[in-house]
Predict the structure of Maleylacetoacetate isomerase.
Amino acid sequence: MTIPQLTLYSYFRSSAAFRVRIALNLKGVAYDIVPVHLLRDGGEHRKDWYKVINPQMRVPSLAVEHGGERRILIQSPAILEWIEETFPRPALLPHDPIERSRVRSIAAIVACDIHPLNNVGVLNYLKGPLGQGQEAVSAWYAHWIRTGFEAIEQMIAPAPYACGDRPTLADLHLVPQVFNARRFKVPIDDFPRILAATEAAMMLEAFARAAPEAQPDAE
């Protein structure tokens, strides 16, 4: 198979972009990064040049160039699905259908229930048009992380990763969310299973190389 040329439009602190970086690293697929700063100068994702790439004006976006054709993929779940289908080894989903469902459920708690309520657009709307102070915004942020983590803590059994002896989509979603929790000083010490799985994952080069502080646009 001819490997397509991949360009990832990424922001170093974006947890969605973090997930995609981990997946590409685990698969051993080469990719270039184009940083898109979400805060500088009103947000580079709102600039005309990026609107052409991603009409939703969010990160990540993945440009796939193959056979003279360039296609743009958006939304991290869809990008991760394409990566898994295009580069099936190592697999990010278990073989057993029940276990696959469990992994997808954990990923969905992060991607559908925690992250959308805590992304930069929502936080800016709380602080701007809704006039909420930083204390209220921080409480909002912590509430949704802890609500999701309370469920995930009961669903995982680190061995050593979230769902067994190899990383899955569950780890790809959980690790960036733990990074976010720590960045915003959300108390998570009472989630030992989550912390153990995260620690095990971060010992892998693929995860460490995808971390925010390892990115070319890290600040």
The two ends are 37 Å apart (CA to CA). The chain is about 50% helix and 10% strand. The chain has two domains: 5-90, 97-207. The mean pLDDT is 96.
